[in-house]
UniProtKB/TrEMBL annotation:
The lineage of its organism: Eukaryota, Metazoa, Ecdysozoa, Arthropoda, Hexapoda. GO terms for cellular component: mitochondrion. It comes from the Eukaryota. This is Nucleoside diphosphate-linked moiety X motif 19, mitochondrial. InterPro entries: NUDIX_hydrolase-like_dom_sf, NUDIX_hydrolase_dom, NUDT19. Keywords: Hydrolase, Magnesium, Manganese, Metal-binding. Residues 33-271 form the Nudix hydrolase domain.
Amino acid sequence: MLFRKVKVLVGAGIGQFRRSISFDRLQNSSTKPWRDSGSAIIVAPMNNNPPYSLGYLMIERSKGSGVAPGCVVFPGGVVSPVDFSPRWTNLYRDANIDLGSFQFFDKNAHTPEIYSREGTDAFPYPSSVVFRLAAIRETFEEVGILICRKTDRASNLCDYDYDYEQLSDRKVVQAWQTKIRKSPEEFINLCVELKCVPDLNALSDWSEWLTPTSLKPKARFDTIFYMLILPKMPRVAYDTHEVASAQWASSASLLKDHLEGKIKLMPPQLYELSRMLNLKSIPEFEERVLRRQKLGIERFFPIVEQALDGILFLLPGDDRYSKEPDVLTFSKPQKLDQTFEQLQSSGQKFHRAQLTKDGAYTTVINVERFGHAY
């Protein structure tokens, strides 16, 4: 059994589909009480000599951000109608790529629930394409990294070539970021001008997180997290309208800064960075990515309970986790008359996170789910 303790601040938060349906309905809170989003976990060596120190690109959202203001998160954002635009079909066709040909999981892998989202007649492609387009668009808008491939070599296996000479001027990048923030359709115009297409194969499915029902719909997101593994750190030019700062940092240093109150991490970031402590090299990440491609991933929807000594977050595989959790109905955390220790003594399989009243965060896990690292 693995016990990992990270102290967090109290109050940091609790954190193929072709039927005709409009995007408005796809994202409408009347059909589901959350918004869909895509996020990129970008990892790269922070030094050139072994043993390499792996860094993660993190952004601090501005105080005026409508989502997680002041929190340190992975780049990403909500799906937009532009991610379903038929213009993408034409752009990829010009690069001799059929958007319907992409397969990101092996045949028998468990497909994450977020990919059951319905598409449109105008853009009848798997949701795995749509969410990748969203994550790539949002990553450029927030940190200026263009995860695209030139159309004359777009069919090649992904390798690192994301430094575009046309974007070497930070002012040019920021001008495009402003355009895209005001009108996401401008991201397609950027790709047309640079003669490139989003590099969908560069993003590997890593995890899916659905916000608990203890938060109101406007604060709930169903997010697919992708892993982008790079051989070196690319240039970063963050959008000052949405992002207060950006940094490359190790998982250990980020967790330490959170422990000391220097930054505030959201629950998915806390969990993901904690388990990444076990991955020390790029080959280890690549092995985990291949394992996910073979086995698939599942949705992490935390069930929140209030024990005598703090808040308990239950995840799939835990003895206390519901076989059919209600992901739709707003509900306050159930109050229990037992402590963490008492609850643990009565179980055998654990996949949970514990947040004590004094702010100590602990994961308790003795199950492996779809090849995930803990």
